[in-house]
Amino acid sequence: MRQQHYLVPTLRDVPADAEVASHQLMLRAGLIRQLASGLYTYLPLAQRVLKKIQDIIREEMNKAGAQELLMPALHPAEIWQETGRWDVYGPELMRLSDRHERQFALGPTHEEVVTGLLRDEVKSYKRLPMTVYQIQTKYRDERRPRFGVLRAREFIMKDAYSFDTSREGLDESYRKMYDAYQAIFSRCQLNFRAVEADAGAIGGTGTHEFMVLSDIGEDTIAYCDTCNYAANIEKAEVNQQEYEQVQGSGLPMEKVDTPQAKTIEQLAAMLNVSPSQIIKAVALAVDGQVVVALVRGDFELNEVKVKNLLDADVVELLDEERIRTELGSEPGFIGPVGLDGCKVIADYSIKGMTDALAGANEKDKHVVHVSVDRDFSVECYADLRQISEGDACPRCAGTIHFAKGIEVGHVFKLGTKYSEAMGATFLDENGKEQPMIMGCYGIGVTRTLAAVIEQHHDEHGIIWPRALAPFDIHLIAVNMKDDAQRELAEQLYTQLREAGYEVLYDDRQERAGVKFKDADLIGIPLRITVGKKAGEGIVESKLRKNGETQELKAEQLIEQIPSLLEQA
């Protein structure tokens, strides 16, 4: 490809609204341009990289026995209403109406569509198991698109769906997809970890996220320094052996004045106590119903764990008006003592606490010497708190540490969540109707592109891994007005292409400094420069990865390229 006519508009300055390296470099290197918030055009360089990522995905998916298809991006509301997700998915679902006022959505994911397809086309156990996948544009109305294509409103995704006749079959399909993902992200040369995760709006159990380790990641990973345990912080289990309760004084509960002490920190300072002696009560609306969740004052409540415990669709903080009118309490002073007519659940850290402090459900009032069971009751105990760095590992004697990660893939065991809701059944060996048992497996293709750049760049620009580079070789003619340079560069361009290499040929009438800066910015693995020694038949090679250079005889270049690319 001749660069003079190639659409690769590089920028010298860092765009003001680009916060992270991948966004900055994708703009500067001419990979993307923004159309509107969260909407991007992928220019030719980016498109070539995306194709290579997709090729890797297809190879590994096909190797695992999956079949590629392509489903509509426009979904009629009725199919989402069958599963109930039309009402509960939330504002991220982009909804629209056609000229007949029939409601549709732009697909953020395709569980309903693919379940409807298999429901109509597969009736016998003899046709199962079956896994299908597609690579397609998806749409989500992100509240705050940011970080370029890492959180966009339109993006390319690979989504796959498995259909089995048994839980054991689902386990096998899940393992195949898990292994395929390991291979895909390894081939993309990403430093990643597979972590236990929450299923979120998709539903199901037994899920893993594939996280690319990066300081700019929006997800926090909790991992053990001794064993292989790793989980998204929303999902991470807490070791129940963490809590040792001390013997209390036995003093009766007493109400005390605590003016303006609405936070744990304010209360601890005012009464000169440790936050671990305080019972934190969090008022929640769980599918509209009032629930109070208790956790020790030095910990944070994990609302995802509450949602999973109560098998709820929506968990949100109770607003101040409902705290006063329905809970009969006061914001900032909520406590478990004397609460009537609502469910009270508690983290294991609360169990057995004595001589504790808690809100008195009155403004500027708390109660001291509170003992669990004596002064209030709890409906159930569970692991409800957020794991903390330094906690004991829930699997071994190791210690938990935190890292940031970018989610690039997610695998789910859906079970019968969608097949039962939509009547996707098959006839078993005995002629009995059974629901299909499903799995779901997604990869953010455009997000993977950005994650690669986050991990493969330096102060000069992108450093593409060989497998994903838009071109194998960046051929530069330093001075196109010099006959010897131009003629040798043209000759090499022809020879390299005929040898099967992908070559970006910088034939622009630009200064050498501009060409070299653009080459480093674009980041193609191997640069071949035709310069002042062209008349002697000598060119220079440079590896983008480490800057290593050497002079080569032009006549020997073709035979030396494989060795150079092996090092790139």
TrEMBL record:
Principal location listed in the UniProt entry: cytoplasm
Domain notes: Consists of three domains: the N-terminal catalytic domain, the editing domain and the C-terminal anticodon-binding domain.
Highest rank taxon of the organism: Bacteria
PANTHER family recorded: MITOCHONDRIAL RIBOSOME PROTEIN L39/PROLYL-TRNA LIGASE FAMILY MEMBER (PTHR42753), PROLINE--TRNA LIGASE (PTHR42753:SF2)
Protein species of origin: Caldalkalibacillus uzonensis
Alphabetic keyword roster: Aminoacyl-tRNA synthetase, ATP-binding, Cytoplasm, Ligase, Nucleotide-binding, Protein biosynthesis
UniProt-listed NCBIfam families: PRK09194.1, proS_fam_II
Function in brief: Catalyzes the attachment of proline to tRNA(Pro) in a two-step reaction: proline is first activated by ATP to form Pro-AMP and then transferred to the acceptor end of tRNA(Pro). As ProRS can inadvertently accommodate and process non-cognate amino acids such as alanine and cysteine, to avoid such errors it has two additional distinct editing activities against alanine. One activity is designated as 'pretransfer' editing and involves the tRNA(Pro)-independent hydrolysis of activated Ala-AMP.
Top EC class for this record: ligase
Transmembrane segments: none
One of the record's GO molecular function terms: proline-tRNA ligase activity
Domain Aminoacyl-transfer RNA synthetases class-II family profile: start-end pairs: 48-465
Subunit structure comment from the entry: Homodimer.
Family label: Belongs to the class-II aminoacyl-tRNA synthetase family. ProS type 1 subfamily.
Name of this chain's protein: Proline--tRNA ligase
Gene responsible for this protein: proS
Location within or outside the cell: Cytoplasm
